[in-house]
Fold these 4 entries.
Entry 1:
Amino acid sequence: MRIKAEARAGVLVICEMKPTGTDPRILSLAAEVAKSPEQNVPVILLKLKEIINNTPVGSSELKKIKQDIYCYDLIQYCLLVLGQDCSRIQGGWTTISQLTQILSHCCVGLDPGEDAEEFYKELLPSAAENFLILERRLQTCFINAAKGEEKDEILHFFQIVTDSLFWLLGGHVQLIQNVLQSDHFLHLLQTDNVQIGSIVMTLLQNILQINSGDLLRIEGKTLHSILDEVIFKILSTPSPVIRSTSTKLLLLMAESHQEILILLRLSACYKGLRNLLNKQETGTEFSQELTQLISLLSPQIYQEVEDQKLHQAACLIQACWKGFQTRKRIKKLPSAVIALQRSFRSKRTKTQLKLNRQKEEEHLRLQLQLQRQRAMRLSRELRLSMLEIVHPGQLEKYNREMEEKSALIIQKYWRGYRERKKFYQQRPSLMEYKAAVTLQRAVLKFLAKCRKRKKQLAPWQRLQELTDARRVELKQQVDDYIRRHSGSQISGVASRELHAQAQEQLQHYFMGRTLEERAQQHREALMAQISTNIEQLMKAPSLKEAEGKEPELFLSRSRPVAAKAKQAHLTTLKHIQAPWWKKLGEEPGDEIDVPKDELSIELGTLFIGGTKPP
């Protein structure tokens, strides 16, 4: 509605004033804008691009066309269209990007005449702000875009809008200060996207090449934010393109302004910048600019000494003068003002300490996060290397062991945390318990001393003598106990025979222990052979991949050998499982009989290679 109302007002001005020498194309275009509905105005305004391109650059005719465009408020219409929602405009971002080109070309080289104040103080700043807002919208669309083709198209529109803004700033350098102080520009500068960040850093570098003096006219907070962002991109951005552009930009700022160079050298905010720059990788495309920047931050020794002497002399003079002024002022000021100053300075110091502590904590948190990421990466690489080393047949066993170890570690830390938590919760009760124990110990000692003192003071009492009746009673109790617990009596001959039998059984046991040790060694050898066979079977190829006589190596065609081996195995098992006291009467060479039924049942489940079932 606003565009339509202003278009009608423009038509009335055209009809009433009828300026002479107006280009008929501009006149017809203005009339068409006034008569067309609001949604068709952006598409109609695109015809200005054809008119401007068909006119020779730098000619008086082009200047006259730009004055006619401004006279008929077509530039204001372009600004109003740029402020609208992109979804309501025909052509979307394509139309908007072309309108930004038209607006920047029309504003550069235009003589506003009598409306110079309105043009320079309202229209141009509004145009620059609209360009920054459009870039912000394009940045949001680029981040939210899912397809690669859509991102490339949005990035192309972002580049067109940025070029239009640079063209406008190149024609009107007074707008550079407004752009540098804008929050939208600072937000664009702080982006994490590599492509958009590279475009914005290049724009800032080109702006400073046009006129770097406006950098010192902006507010100190904004200047510090720009410097912080540029230094952050040099030190932390992995993209070499952004790092190169940021290094060149910081070098340009330091070479152009001595104040910025002094700020980078002496300010506490940038303490240690030179050491961090020295840690950057050498041999890159921007190593030369990085070396120049480091040399700027570290001047020659003689120059440093001279500057230090001058600085110390200035500090001494300032200290003497400020001390004199302070002493003079303190004598005149009441004590209330002194207390106020003291409280203010203490509060300022606490605030500064808090900020420094927050910065240190943030730095420590980032370092811890990087260490965790490195540790996680190393553990994953180690796990992948272990998975490559482990045989595929043992992979499930290895994963199960790793899961058990991980579960044990988690349980260990959780139990430690739980016990520490319980300890801290029970700490007051433990303190109370210790205090109670101390009190009880002191009371018991006191009572013991009291009892000891009473015994010392008490008269000596003789023991009572036993009476005859008491002696008879005790003797009767002793006789009853002996009668109930009479010991078993055995003759000497029986004792000797029992001893001889025990010695004989013990001798048989020691004689059979040597055979058992040999059998144990034989079993260990067989277990080692079985382990070797298992490893060979695991490493053996599958039946599909086997060639030649490889499958025949794992077959046995001797059924008697298998039966004898099974019988020997069962005999050994029965002998091992029998208790030791049953082995005392056996001779070392005796064999244990195995029932045939049990042997046939066991042989039914034995695999004998090379045979077929009946």
Entry 2:
Amino acid sequence: MSTHSGDVSNNDSSIRNIDSCSTVTELEDIDFSRLPRPRNLNIERQGSYDEKSLTETQLGFSPHPPSRAENFFRALEHFDCIFSPSKRSEFTTPRSPFGQGPHPMVAEAWDSLRRTLVHFRGQPVGTIAALDNSDEKLNYDQVFVRDFVPSALAFLMNREPEIVKNFLLKTLRLQSWEKKIDRFQLGEGVMPASFKVLHDPVRNTETLIADFGESAIGRVAPIDSGFWWIILLRAYTKSTGDTSLSELPECQKGMRLILSLCLSEGFDTFPTLLCADGCSMIDRRMGVYGYPIEIQALFFMALRCALLLLKHDAEGKEFVERIVKRLHALSYHMRNYFWLDLKQLNDIYRYKTEEYSHTAVNKFNVMPDSLPEWVFDFMPVSGGYFLGNVGPSNMDFRWFCLGNCIAILSSLATPEQATKIMELIESRWHELVGEMPLKVCYPAIEGHEWRIVTGCDPKNTRWSYHNGGSWPVLLWLLTAACIKTGRPQLARRAIEVAEQRLSKDGWPEYYDGKLGRFIGKQARKYQTWSIAGYLVAKMMLEDPSHLGMISLEEDKQLKPVLKRSASF
């Protein structure tokens, strides 16, 4: 990767290194519009970061059976692996590659998405969480890092990268703020959960206000924000061919600060990240403390993206070496100990306990009696998935959508595992998709378990919100995973299910019930990421080459030899 470390200082003296002591006034005085113009790469001939073409690598791997994916990708050979910066998405034109005109919902979705734009000093910097007209807005009028990701992808796919660039730079500046909750100071690399723009009509000024967890439910810092920021920076670079943004000293420093937090040495004996409840999309108490799959998959993907973006200078080289070591350990741990299929389920069912030696098979001392009854019927013969959580004497057997889809997109899942995840979704379509895609987790917890795990949370009752609710935003992740594994027809089927109700219901945040039949009891209407998730799913189906900005091919060096009988 080429380096241009001198660009900022030579081209614009107003852009400077930001440290943790910078004041709000100093940060707001920076003129982001004077950043260097994007430096376009010749991506028509060679993909950035020396990645192989989409068709050559079949978007990361060749799923099993190979004929399904091979036939699909032969039909897509006219697509480039990288989104071409010279071509706007054609989804607003009368014709699509599948021979049908755009769905009427598309124009409505774009109109709604544009109405959520937030401006700071004349520049778009993000999208609010929801176009909510109720008096009780709570924090739905803020720009959330995780919520903005599908909006960012939609704008990138539609050849509107400036808002994404502005967002990345603004959140980067917010990262350098001093962050305190009560009398405790958070790590320098923590990214905000959200921010909002405050307008002062008297002084005619605008001010950014960030939330690093001090206002969140449970007062938990968002671990996923930093990972999403790195992933989005790579998506921007991949889709535009512009490396000048990621090569800014400020961006390089921002990545290193995030990595310093999660690569620091401690008392852990596992390469996974230890997390509190409520630190990610499931931002309320739901029994995901420990080593949740969502965070581990995002961690893995962010590490791989950072490996592509970091400069190989003195500071960057040290982090590159640490990343490579962690990726090897993390991929082995996740693929061995988090993976569940019919064979592994049977092995756990027959586990012996209280084993004490390095040759132990039941390494986490999991009690076979802790296996939930539902998992025996839920597990198909040919399917599999990554468990929700694995720790000492603990296995969370719930299926979590985001973690499993990110595992496919990041190639944390091996080709065989990715295929089994998709086979499970197809086999359990009624349970996981039902009447509105897609279950955030399955199954719901209820009764005494619900009281203990959630603390009697009235918002996370059974089959509602995070507790088995159906979230339309997950449609884009499912679509991306389907395309990568050569099953676009499965994504089209899910989109058609969503199109029956999503617009008519006012683009709700989530749906309730076993089948997702009811609009969520506290769901906000015109939820931005429900709108953006639909658009991203539609555009990826129209032009599967868009997948390149959010998907990583398999790294053969990380592929372990799986020997469960000897290692688990």
Entry 3:
Amino acid sequence: MTTLTVREAVFYSAQLQLPDSMSISEKKERAEMTIREMGLQDSMDTRIGGWSTKGLSGGQKRRVSICIEILTWPKLLFLDEPTSGLDSAASYHVMNRIVKLAHQHGRTIIASIHQPSSEVFELFHNLCLLSYGKTVYFGPISMAEMLFATNGFPCPPLRNPSDHYLRTINKDFDEDIEQGIGSSSTEEIIDTLVKSYKSSEICKQVQHNVLKISQQKRGPLEKKGSQASFITQSIVLTKRSFINMYRDLGYYWLRFAIYIALCLCVGTIFHDIGLTYGSIQARGSMLMFVAAFLTFMAIGGFPSFVEDMKIFGRERLNGHYGVGAFVIGNTISSIPYLCFISLIPGALAYYLVGLQKSFDHFIYFVILLFTSTMLVESIMMTVASVVPNYLMGIITGAGIQGIMILNGGFFRLPDDLPKPFWRYPMYYIAFHKYANQGFYKNEFEGLSFPNNQVGGPPTITGDEVLRSFWQVEMGYSKWIDLVILFGMVVVYRLMFWGIIITVEKIKPLIKDYMAASPKKSSMILENPSSISSQLEML
């Protein structure tokens, strides 16, 4: 999370992963010890940083990620290029510390490594060389050189063995290898090494060990996951999310400034609206703007929420916490900010326009604005669980709200909506129906206006305006509209939770199906650039 410092990021992760039996001070000590082990003690109070603020370097961020993963001392840890972005000295110290942790706690570390120095290369015990989906070598790191030498590819003196191995088996740049077999292609060299390895004693020993291990009767594997309780996870995520929202200008502060500007525009355009017959239409237009376009601005925080979703996705798959804790944490942490951006801009618009002076009416106005804004955020959360990036999410969310605004009962009165689809069911699905009616009932009930219509009574009451002019359903009070909106907030947040859980279960099935497809397999073999030159150290 780019707005947190190194100390905060690791400490919050410690609280999420470590058991409740450990005290806060013990978790803090574990976090700071882990930071020192990764050589980040001088950057403890530096923010991680992102696109908007300068912070840690790429290599330091990578070390923070390693810190978060080794907090619980897992029995099996996979590190994907942990030394990328580090210089040779930092790479050695980081990997040396990881090796010491593996020895100290009896852990297994698997790492894909990028361009290791000879010192880093020697730290590993076992080596797996892959080229185009083929296992070129798997076994003790000291025996790899013998395999290459016996097949005519000895490592030249003073050359880094890892560089030599990769250069030999990389056919992205298929040039002649001047190692003793003339102009043989790299593909032929790879086939030679693969056949040699399969017939070697090393391969037979590996297969024997695999068979021996598979025949052992063991207990069930420990399930990787957080040892903290659900309540602890929810509390920690709420604190972390609150700090992130406070420090990220794009989450709420920029939106607050836009709200202030918009409400000043509304307040000056509709200033002191009065109680004339013409104010009926003006009041309805102003309240519709608040219910539709002011809440529409809630999509402005969507890019920041998408960044949170990326972090959630990684931490969720690593078992740090569940979907329920994330939803609760995000919901509770956003409430103070939503109250703030509803109260102050809402007060500006409300009193500049001159709506009903009663404090009860003003409180209802703010609560309804707050609920509608939270509802839009809930819709955007649901969108974020489906679309892959924030640009598509904003377009999708804007389209959904545009449809809801169109049939919310203002641009086309309810009785005039085409009954198939638009009246039933879209009119009742659109939250603007309940927001508009709540605002209208709150404002028009108890007022009276002069009647300019010929032959009519001299005055017209607010109830008559609601029934005839705005076609508002008067069979229930404005509080029912508020309750319905709040229920929609709950429904959309539950939809978000349900979609995340469903996707997690379906995605592996789809991947398995695609992997089993012959067409997919041939594509992997024909275009294996993602596997090419990949060196994995075990």
Entry 4:
Amino acid sequence: MSISDPSAAQTPLLDDTIDGCLDYKGRPVRRSSSGCWISASFIIVVEIAERFAYYGISSNLITYLTGPLGESTATAAAQVNAWNGAASLLPLLGAFIADSFLGRYRTIILASLVYILGLGLLALSATLSSISSSGGQNADDIALSSSLQFQVILFFSSLYLVAFAQGGHKPCVQAFGADQFDTQDPEECKAKSSFFNWWYFGMCAGTLTTLSILNYIQDNLSWVLGFAIPGIVMAVGLVVFLLGTMTYRYSVKGDEESPIVTVGRVFILAVRNQKTSYSAIAAEEEARGILATESSKQFKFLNKALLAPDGSKEQGEVCSIREVEEAKAVIRLAPIWATSLIYAIAFAQSSTFFTKQGATMDRSTAMGFEIPAASLQSFISLSVVLFIPIYDRIFVPLARALTGKQAGITLLQRIGSGMVISTISLVIAAVVEMRRLKIAEEYGLLDKPNVMVPMSVWWLVPQYTLYGLADVFTMVGLQEFFYDQMPNELRSVGLALYLSIFGVGSFLSSFLISAIENLTSGDGRDSWFANNLNRAHLDYFFLLLAVLSAVGLTLYVCCTKYYIYARWGRTF
């Protein structure tokens, strides 16, 4: 008994530990006292703070650029898209640094500090704007011009410092949050699927707060205060994140080489072995006991990395089966990534032309309060906040009962459903804009851009609401898809790839706007994006995007037919 009792006592402890994870002191972590929703709650709070800060800048950025900085509508829209693009592409760098060197926890802390610095400098640049605008008539024009130039340099430097910080923060926080759930445990695996829904719920709650409060402060009180508050909120979020340090599960990072280098080596060896016959590869697969599967048959040229060019099999000169499968998982994501770009181009319009569209309309309420144009974006967040609980608690269980799938529908089906809704939203946006232009013509306002068009801004609510509904399906689906289908060591990179869709989409939107501006202007004509929106044709632009979205959706459906889910992901 004296021997058997200690063994029995140790069994629960052994079962309670989680493979591949440590606590904050580097000890084996216990399931019962770490991770799951307790840890995820701290991480969701810091994400709410970060989204509050980010959208506190991006949602009303076009108003600041066309107002205090005096840029044209087309130029400002291109600037906003370029910045959003940079902010969405920089996570690739942040994810590489996190997965290869610092780890997610340290990268989050460092990125948060840089974030706070950037927001502080942004508030300082707005302070200079206030000082310049308060100068009297006798103020030295040269001094004011120099001050304005310094303000613009400081503003854009601070703006891109925020984008750089977001690049380290965004992919790591979400991946670190998902890491708190053990996919080997059935209950935690199911909870992880809900985590992505509630993660986006938290994001949109932060965004909704920003659009409801911060945009009003920026438009009616002070840009300085409007830029300073996000910095304060971000600092509070960092403190909350640090409070959860003792509860987090930290993935074990060994001394092995960077996973990005490993995947890269598969492609290099496959190219160097291009002359190797497929019969030799088949013999090697048989020798290793590899069973023929759909995955092994797809992208067979990568299987050449299993052999060295000289036929040797020394350590380091050939790749393992898992390494080849990881490389295949990465390349399989490329068609999904590419066909999602049109959705990202459409997504970029909500913070630019939708906002300018609303600024020309009747924004007064029964209480005499005028709604800030940028605050209309709150309907996107509001529809997300309202629909995600319905999706998670009602739609998923019903769909699960019908399909037998853990998430109700597959991730690719979820993403495609949102693309359909987004296309419908763009058609509605075009119809509403046609109506706005007709009313402007009827009231003789075509050449009076500063006069309000007597059409209620509530006409824009349907397009904003459908955008939010599309996000519930496509945005959340893309997040989970790019996390789930990447190897564990590359999941920060996976989320960075998801974000890069919207980065490249913003750049493509900027390019499309510039191209259309050049094609439709000149010879005394008003372009589709004329500063006088009553002479512009945003309706044509929205219809063009709807057609492109339909084409993109068709290509996406074709690509999904050939997609093979990674074996370490969920079973569908």
